[in-house]
Structure formats: C-alpha cells, structure tokens
Design brief:
about 290 residues, alpha/beta, TIM Barrel, 8-stranded mixed sheet, two-stranded parallel sheet, 10 helices, 10 strands, about 15% strand
Amino acid sequence: MALTPPAETPARRLPEWLRTKTGKRRLTEMTHAVVHAHGLHTVCEGAHCPNIGECYSRHVATFMILGNVCTRNCGFCAVNSGEPAPVDPEEPQRVAAAAVELGLKFVVVTSVTRDDLPDGGSGQFAATIRAIHAAMPGAKVEVLTPDFLGDSGQLATVLDAGPEVFNHNVETVRRLQATVRPQADYERSLGVLRRAARTAPHIPTKSGIMVGLGETEAEVHETLRDLIDAGCKIVTIGQYLQPSRRHIPVAAYITPQEFAAYEQHAYALGFQHVASGPFVRSSYHAEQAVGVLA
C-alpha cells in the first residue's frame, strides 16, 4: 500500500524506517476474500493501515462493525464520514463466522462512531463479543470502542458482555484534541477509561496515541501519566501517517530511538504492556499483550 507524503511537502520522502511492510499476495487475497464473502468491513482497509499486507498475510484482520460510515469527521482518519446505514442484526454472527474461518485465537473488534444510535452501538458490540465467544470457546476478544458520548450505561453494556481487553484511544495529546478529533473530548475519553477500569477491574484497559502531529515530548509524557492514572494497563504509540492530502499533515517523523525512549518511559510509569514504534497501531499484534499467539 502506497503512503501519501505530507501535503505541505509533496516531494518529501519517507524515512528509511517507514518503508511499507508487505505480505504474500496469495495469503493477503485469501483474507480479503473471507472478509468480503461475509459482507464485513475492516479498519485495516477503511483506515488505510500500512500493516494491512503483513496482517492479512497472517490471516489477521480487525473487524469494523456498525458499517463503514462514521458520524464523526476526525482530521486524521480515512474512514468515510456521513450518514450511516441501519444497524445489521446479523453482523455479529457474520463476524464470528469469519473469525472461525480465519482461525483467529484473538479477535479485535472496533467500529465507526455511531452518535446517531440511541445506544451508541454498544448493543452491537455486546452481541458481537457474545457471538465470537459462542462460536469459538477459548478465543479472546479485544474491543476498541468509541467514547459513547460518555454514557456509562452504554459502556456497561459492552463490559457486561465480557471482552478480554477493553480499548479506547485518546489518539493524541490534550493540546491537539480539537484539531485531531474535534467531536471528541480528552477528559471524556479519560473518563471512559477510568470507569472501565473501576467497573470491570478484571478486564485490562488499553489506549493509544499517535505521534508526529506536532506534540512535544513533555506532552506525550503527560498523556502517558494521564492514562496510567485512569487505570490503563496497556498502551500503544505509533507514527501518524497522513491518509490523503485532505487530512492533517505530518509534522514530524519520530525516529525508532525516540519510540524506544517512549516505551521505556511508559514502562517506568507502570504500564504492563507497551507497544511503541513507527508502524504500531492499536490492533497491531494486539494478542501479544495477553500472551496469545497469532
């Protein structure tokens, strides 16, 4: 998958460490075929993830439920924004069937944000978790949810379904929230994570941030402290890459050495698992945090 250079410097080349990873085409096409045969969407495709070739070649995909159109319009995200389609009640069963066909032991489920729904899509998350567990006893499920507008009841609906990991991303540092995710709120996201950790302490909480958007090292450290104070056990830190020229331009390419320093700092704060690197994304090798082999 080709990566678009920052809009303000069209001739700028990506640094050596950001060469796109690829997978075997035949294996990649097999995963693509399974996903689409079941009428499903993945964030791998919807968000133009640079790891799609590598992950699809391992028959790993992150399912994106509730359609492929988001009610929000974040400045970093390639997922389409607009008026979503009605919720498909058969979608949870199809996700479970695709996970079985792919042979997944660890299933990551995310969604578009559905502020148009009375329950924010929490019921569909719960149904999907239960469908996967029923179809694949012993499989583990990680959910990456929106903020549900801070509704504690909707959060409880998801947690009551028993995911093995609960993830909600703050995405960036406090100062850049209004630009990067204008319809979200930093404190609201921290509140979601805090309530999840308190309501279901047996379910590890997780969050992630992108770097390269213009944040400072001190701001990254502040965000990591906020997350650990909110009860997060797992954190991911990855390089922001501009999906298209319509999106926020890249301010800086963070070096592998800087990512290593962030990882060390996060562990020093008390995180139980840290994934920090240029190609790290929320669901990239997510099973490693709970010791499940891909």
